[in-house]
Every structure is written in structure tokens, then in C-alpha cells.
TrEMBL record:
GO terms for molecular function: O-methyltransferase activity; S-adenosylmethionine-dependent methyltransferase activity. It comes from Kitasatospora kifunensis. This is Putative O-methyltransferase YrrM. It holds the Pfam family Methyltransf_3. The keyword S-adenosyl-L-methionine applies.
Length: 315
């Protein structure tokens, strides 16, 4: 589905939003959410309107480019008509397909990858072994710069007790465990014996096996069985996306104040932005991204690292 955005500078974003939702809602379906956002659904596409202090953001999605142009036209014309007291400039971005969005241009991404502390031989060997042993699934492994970022976060936060949801063949767990002190502990959760057999082998070889406790089984059960007091310093979530909101809830209450939650793939290759994607994991990630931005238990920031990484620090 093509998507196009316009960020319109204005002194009256909420007022125009209400006028648009109310007026265009006569011929289309429209709604106003409690957080101030509006949605207008036409037969040809949808416009989501978000007010902020000094601008009105419009995101239009449609089945095809013709529909997109039609929705852009009707929304922009009415907005300009309502703005009798100021001159608005409505400039739409070139249409993109939500499922094809990359946060970072691949060329820039490659530059980032080659400009951090390089992966050592063991991690490089693990990458090759994972490709050999798991074929297409190897794409699930985090990239090296994200691994270096994880190690740095563990060191910077001084974490001693960590949790990982989604081990696969152990790349990210090695990166986390390497940042922990010698008496640190990483609880690593996964459902696959087959993939984590490779992880175990590499944990041994990396000299971090003693710091890692592997729990095989649905991670939600493992997390729910943990003591409820807030004792976790850092947790990394990189498993089945539909369960992210549930993992977040279980972990956020067990994080100590100042503890850090790191969530991978929060951008879902751009599909979080594209209402065309309505599978359970798309809805779950969209819901969680919205929740984290408002959740008073944490302060959070979404970073353009690989497929999107959110850091949520417990207050
Ligand atoms: C994206 S991979 C993790 C990649 C890993 N972090 C790395 O750097 O190599 C996702 C992992 O989550 C695991 N997984 C999927 N559903 C799960 C569940 N319900 N509970 C625990 N682990 C699960 C899969 O077996 C898979 O190994």
C-alpha cells in the first residue's frame, strides 16, 4: 500500500483536525481517539491526523496511487479551506510502500556496520555456522553493530542480572554476556533445543557459558515464573513479535528502577506504519510502540538501529 505524509506547520492543529474529522466524516467514516488523533476512512484510502504543538501530521494510505492522490486532494483542499486565518503549506512526501521502508539507507547501514569495533573470529564463525545450519532462518540473527551496541549497553548500565527472550544460535546472548561482570547472570529463553544447541557450544567457546542459564519453553511461562520483585537490570526482547506486549508487561514490572529494556524489530521493516498489515504481530507491535511512548513507568526512545530498537528505562 502506498503511504504519503505531510507535516503542516500551523498554530491550530487540534482545531483543524476536529473540523476535518467532523466535516469529512459526513461522507466517510471518521473517529477521534482519546489521545487527540483523528482517522478518516474513505472508500479509496485512509488519513490519520496527529496534532502536536505546532503542526498537524497527515498520513495517507490507499490501495493504489490513484486512491492516494484522491485522498491527499480532498484532505488538503478542506484543510486549506478551513485555514482562513493563516496560510498553510501542505506538501506531501513521495509515496512509499510501507512494507519496503528501511529506516537506514542500505548503503549507510553498511557503513555503520563497518565502522564499529569489529566482530571477533568466534562471532564471525558463529555467523557462518548459523547460515550453514539454519539456512534462511539465519536472517533472524542480530547484525554485528547491534551486537556491539548490546555489549555497550550492558557495560554502560553496569547490569549484573540480565534476561534475553529469543536466543536462536546465541549471537546476542554472547554479546550480552560479554558485557556482564564475571559473576553476572543471563537468563536466556527460547523454545528451540536445536538452535540453542549451537548457542551452548559457542557460549562455551566464548568463555561465557557459566554466566548463562538457558530455559527451554515458551518464554512467557518462563518470565511469569520469575520472582515478582524488581531485580532485573537489563532485558533484551527478540522473539515472536505477537507476544512482545506480554513480554514487555512481565519484564517491566520486574526491572529495577533504572533498569533497561531493549526491544528489537520494533519497526517491522516499515510494516508498523502501514495499516495494510493487519496480522496479529503487526497489531501487537503497533499497540506496544504506542503504549511505550506513553507508559509512565518508563522513559523510552526508539532508535533507527537496524530494524528499530526501543530502549525503555524504568523510572
Ligand atoms: C529472532 S530469533 C533470535 C535471534 C537472536 N537474538 C540472535 O541474535 O541470534 C527469535 C528466537 O525466538 C525464539 N522463539 C520464538 N517463539 C518463542 C517463544 N514463544 N518463547 C521463547 N522463544 C521463542 C525462536 O526459537 C528464535 O530462536
Amino acid at each position: 500500500m502506498p503511504i504519503s505524509t505531510a507535516r503542516v506547520a500551523t498554530t491550530r492543529p487540534a482545531r483543524y483536525l476536529k473540523q476535518l474529522v467532523s466535516h469529512l466524516g459526513r461522507k466517510a467514516t471518521s473517529s477521534l481517539a482519546t489521545d487527540g488523533r483523528g482517522t478518516i476512512t474513505f472508500s479509496r484510502g485512509t488519513c490519520v491526523l496527529t496534532p502536536s504543538r505546532d503542526q498537524l501530521e497527515l498520513i495517507v494510505t490507499a490501495e493504489d496511487l490513484e486512491g492516494l492522490a484522491g485522498v491527499q486532494d480532498v484532505v488538503a483542499r478542506h484543510l486549506l479551506r478551513f485555514a482562513t486565518q493563516e496560510e498553510l503549506d501542505v506538501r506531501w512526501s513521495a509515496p512509499v510502500a510501507g512494507g519496503d521502508l528501511e529506516i537506514v539507507d542500505p548503503v549507510a547501514g553498511d557503513y555503520l556496520l563497518t565502522h564499529c569495533t569489529p566482530a571477533d573470529e568466534l562471532l564471525q564463525e558463529l555467523v557462518a555456522r548459523t547460515r550453514e545450519a539454519t539456512g534462511g532462518a539465519a536472517g533472524m540473527q542480530i547484525a554485528h553493530d547491534e551486537g556491539a551496541f548490546l555489549t555497550m549497553l550492558v557495560r554502560l548500565t553496569g547490569a549484573r542480572r540480565a534476561v534475553e527472550v529469543g536466543v536462536f544460535t546465541g549471537y546476542s546472548s554472547i554479546c550480552i554476556a560479554r558485557g556482564l561482570p564475571a559473576d553476572g547472570h543471563l537468563l536466556a529463553c527460547d523454545v528451540s533445543e536445536e538452535w540453542t544447541d549451537i548457542a551452548r557450544e559457542y557460549w562455551e567457546r566464548a568463555g561465557v557459558a557459566e554466566r548463562i542459564e538457558l530455559k527451554i519453553g515458551p518464554a512467557l511461562e518462563t518470565l511469569r515464573a520469575l520472582p515478582e520483585e524488581p531485580s532485573i537490570d537489563l532485558a533484551f526482547i527478540d522473539a515472536d513479535k505477537a507476544n512482545y506486549p506480554a513480554y514487555y508487561e512481565e519484564l517491566v514490572q520486574r526491572l529495577r528502577p533504572g533498569g533497561l529494556l531493549v526491544l528489537d524489530n520494533v519497526f517491522l521493516g516499515g510494516r508498523v506504519l502501514d495499516p495494510a498489515y493487519q496480522e496479529e504481530h503487526h497489531l501487537a507491535m503497533r499497540r506496544l510502540n504506542d503504549l511505550m511512548a506513553r507508559d509512565e513507568r518508563v522513559e523510552s526512545v526508539m532508535l533507527p538501529v537496524r530494524d528499530g530498537v526501543t530502549l525503555a528505562r524504568k523510572r
